[in-house]
Predict the 3D structure of the following.
Amino acid sequence: MRNLCPALQNKTYFNYGGQGPLPSPSLEAITASWSRIQELGPFTTDVWPYIATEVNSTRRLLAQCCGIPAHRLALTENVTSGCVLPLWGLPFSEGDRLLISDCEHPGVVSACVELARRQHLAIDVLPVKHLRGDQAHCDAAVIEAIAQTLTPRTRLVVLSHLLWNTGQVMPIAAVAKQLNQHPQQPFLLVDAAQSFGQIPVEEAAAAADIYAFTGHKWACGPEGLGGVALSERVVAEAAPTVIGWRSLRDESKADLNGSDLFHHDSRRFEVATSCVPLMAGLRCSLQLLEQQGSAEQRWDSIQTLSSSLWQSLEGLDHVTPLLETAPASGLVSFQINGDVPPAEHVKQLGAQGLWIRDLADPSCLRACTHISTTASEIDALVAAISPL
């Protein structure tokens, strides 16, 4: 896998949580698909069967990755659209409350803030940023925090599967079970930007109401293509929001008096024309990952590498990892003691061909290990951090 990624040949790369490198076979698959569409004619009767096959095969593969039937998988462009499009279609009433964790991405938080403003909803905060211990302790603490912050009017809970800043894994299936026992049965929206392609997601994706992911991070696919797994009740109860011809049961004509315009499945949250060749690229990347081992095997490999990095950083006097124990994922967040801003450390390391990123909340640095990371790369990063 490593040798197939040109981006890994001339640098030491630890930013898989931002964007994964695209393998050459995936780029070739995209190019071949584009060429095929042009050969058939981009708008001819000959091209539609080809495009339908590309769309349907991609939908089936992503649904299989999420452990759900294909009719509950909507194709999207990114995590944000996967979260926001079904979120804004949920049936809220004035005075309902949204419970949002304090580790969510600004894009999702801002969408919830604007939704609350427009529909006169209230927002509560679920504290999880402080959770830095072992997984069992974290799981219990999350369930307890939800029990303390839920209200009789809570209608939605927003919680990432894998926190993008601290690297802590959230017990999504257990949270879903807990919410089902609440009188309101709040919807559960899960940002899966950091989980899909890195850790097994079937259990969480099948349990959540909205499980939105992208292909361009840990799955090492092209940017501009992702998906969202939806529960049966979201498919049944949520209204379409941003609407286009792909949302419609009959795209051939406008119907000003229509009462049943939209697909009865996840396609009601798809909008309009998307880049079909990207689908071949993402399928290729997912197949390449599968060739490296099962999701569980790849997760074990990633954990071994991240544990090695965490232990080495923990051994440096001036470095403090955010987590108190070795991470359960490939995200390793840490702080370097002193007055130098994290962004400056990123520049200093980048000048040496070592690429990590800085985060604002909490203020820290983040390095990501994937199955393509090597022990020598970890040693090189630690050696470069030591004199800082």
Notes: The CA atoms of residues 255 and 329 lie 49 Å apart.
